[in-house]
């Protein structure tokens, strides 16, 4: 009798877990359909990030053979040494400003060492891309992404899931891309005085 009760409990727990997973998946799908999906890391965000990387690579902004830039001393959270460039870029038929920041780190990183061997110290490429009006009006329509040097996306682990860092990264959170850049002078989310969206 005990074996039967334990087997019944296991089946009930398994059924509850399956139903819960299906409900959660259905909820997320419904929310996405209604425009209420996660602010970052959705399949659309990841696809957009791939298209953006390809366009930046074609323009010589990232990847092997990317244009050489002048490294400078950086600040957290990006890196001890940085390189920044910007230009208008067309992605999926939309033309917008892209700001590309190459982030260098390592035990003996310095401007001189990055100039001598940038591949050794390049740890990430962070990007802001000005999307079409209405993409995210609260945050000036910026699309954010954090790439590894090979163009794959960094991910954040949350509640047992890996969320790719692309889209409206950390929207509504007290820390992260949007929260930090909201403090930029001029209200345009851009810290550099030489870049005007």
In short:
With 197 residues, the protein is of the alpha+beta class. It has 2 domains: 37 residues; 149 residues, no CATH class.
Account of the 3D structure:
The chain has 197 residues and is of the alpha+beta class. It has two domains: 1-37; 39-187, no CATH class. The protein contains five helices and eight strands; from the N terminus they run ααβββααβββββα. The strands form two sheets. Strands 1-2-3-4-5-8 form a six-stranded antiparallel beta sheet. It has a two-stranded antiparallel sheet with strand order 6-7. The longest helix has 32 residues, at 2-33. Residues 14-35 have low confidence and may be disordered.
Chain-wise SSE layout:
Blueprint: H1 2-33, H2 43-58, E1 72-73, E2 81-91, E3 94-104, H3 111-116, H4 118-121, E4 122-130, E5 142-147, E6 155-158, E7 161-164, E8 166-167, H5 177-181
Antiparallel strand pairs: 1-2, 2-3, 3-4, 4-5, 5-8, 6-7
Distance between the amino and carboxyl termini: 72 Å
Overall morphology? globular
Q: Approximately how much beta-strand content do the residues carry?
A: 15-25%
- SSE order: HHEEEHHEEEEEH
Estimate percent helicity.
25-40%
Detail the poorly predicted runs: 14-35
Question: What is the oligomeric state here?
Answer: single chain
Largest β-sheet summary = 6 strands, antiparallel
The computed structural class is alpha+beta
What count of structural domains? 2
Task: Give, in spatial order, the strands making up the sheet with the most strands.
Answer: 1-2-3-4-5-8
- Count of helical regions: 5
Averaged pLDDT: 84
């Amino acid at each position: 009798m005990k074996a039967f009760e334990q087997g019944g409990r296991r089946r009930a727990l398994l059924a509850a877990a399956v139903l819960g997973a299906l409900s959660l998946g259905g909820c997320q799908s419904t929310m996405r359909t209604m425009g209420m999906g996660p602010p970052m890391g959705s399949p659309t965000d990841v696809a957009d990030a791939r298209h953006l990387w390809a366009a930046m690579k074609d323009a010589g902004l990232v990847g092997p053979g990317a244009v050489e830039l002048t490294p400078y001393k950086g600040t957290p959270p990006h890196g001890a040494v940085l390189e920044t460039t910007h230009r208008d870029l067309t992605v999926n038929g939309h033309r917008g400003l892209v700001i590309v920041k190459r982030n260098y780190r390592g035990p003996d990183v310095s401007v001189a060492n990055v100039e001598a061997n940038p591949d050794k110290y390049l740890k990430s490429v962070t990007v802001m891309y000005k999307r079409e009006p209405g993409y995210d009006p609260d945050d000036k329509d910026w699309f954010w992404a954090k790439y590894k040097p090979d163009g794959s996306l960094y991910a954040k682990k949350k509640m047992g899931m890996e969320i790719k860092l692309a889209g409206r990264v950390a929207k509504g959170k007290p820390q992260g891309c949007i929260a930090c850049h909201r403090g930029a002078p001029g209200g345009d989310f851009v810290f550099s005085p030489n870049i005007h969206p």
